[in-house]
From TrEMBL:
Native source organism of the sequence: Streptococcus moroccensis
Protein name (Swiss-Prot/TrEMBL): NADH-flavin reductase
All copies of domain NAD(P)-binding, residue ranges: 7-195
InterPro entries according to UniProt: NAD(P)-bd_dom (IPR016040), NAD(P)-bd_dom_sf (IPR036291), Polyketide_Oxido-like (IPR051606)
Classification lineage: Bacteria, Bacillati, Bacillota, Bacilli, Lactobacillales
Signal peptide: none
Length: 210
């Protein structure tokens, strides 16, 4: 498959790129600066300067882009909106590296993780921005989007177990009763979704063992 990864030089983007290349896919890194993206074609362009023509050759576009300050958190919504508009009405899928805060913690789907008393206050602005961006994404019925929420404990340094469990809209736990996944297992699950296409216009999540 032909895959584009926006933000391919970030922590999650690098692992997704490596996993896709390992499986023989054709991967293009879309980055603002051409560094740390060897062994793959690179399109050096700001995400907001991307055009429909830029993305037309790809089967899947992945957004692994991150924003880490309160001033830039609103850009998640703008990125999702912009790329969704570019891909609307096409067969190109749009897969987003999402957040865990929007996962529901009850079967009735009345309470999201970020609304629970123990949710860390320091992470709330980021979680709220990602949650709002998911609401925007859901409005694009003509775009084949997928929002992939990690577990609550999203471990950048964790090892790859090679095994994971999938869920849908609700927070799930592993056999140890933990909401945990490493970036490496997350990348594995994301590339599996690229290949399988099980969650078109849906959000899903995954957990793994430490």
């Amino acid at each position: 498959m032909k895959i584009a990864i926006i933000g391919a030089n970030g922590q999650s983007g690098k692992l997704i790129l490596a996993e896709a290349l390992k499986r023989g896919h054709e991967v293009t890194a879309i980055v603002r600066r051409a560094d740390s993206t060897s062994h793959t074609p690179v399109l050096v362009k700001d995400v907001f300067e991307l055009t429909a023509e830029d993305l037309s050759a790809f089967d899947v576009v992945v957004s692994a882009i991150g924003f880490w300050t309160e001033e830039t958190f609103p850009l998640f919504d703008k990125v999702f909106r912009h790329v969704s508009q570019l891909l609307a009405g096409t067969e190109t899928r749009f897969i987003v590296v999402g957040g865990a805060g929007s996962l529901f913690v009850d079967p009735a789907h009345t309470t999201q993780l970020l609304e629970t008393p123990d949710f860390p206050a320091a992470f709330y602005p980021l979680a709220k921005a990602m949650t709002d961006a998911l609401v925007t994404l859901r409005t694009f019925s003509a775009t084949a989007w997928t929002f992939f929420s990690p577990a609550a404990d999203f471990d950048a340094e964790g090892k790859a177990s090679g095994n994971y469990q999938l869920g849908g809209e609700e927070l799930i736990l592993n056999a140890a009763g933990e909401s945990y996944i490493s970036y490496a297992d997350y990348a594995l699950a994301l590339v599996d979704e690229i290949e399988n296409g099980n969650f078109i216009r849906q959000r899903f999540t995954a957990v793994a063992e430490k």
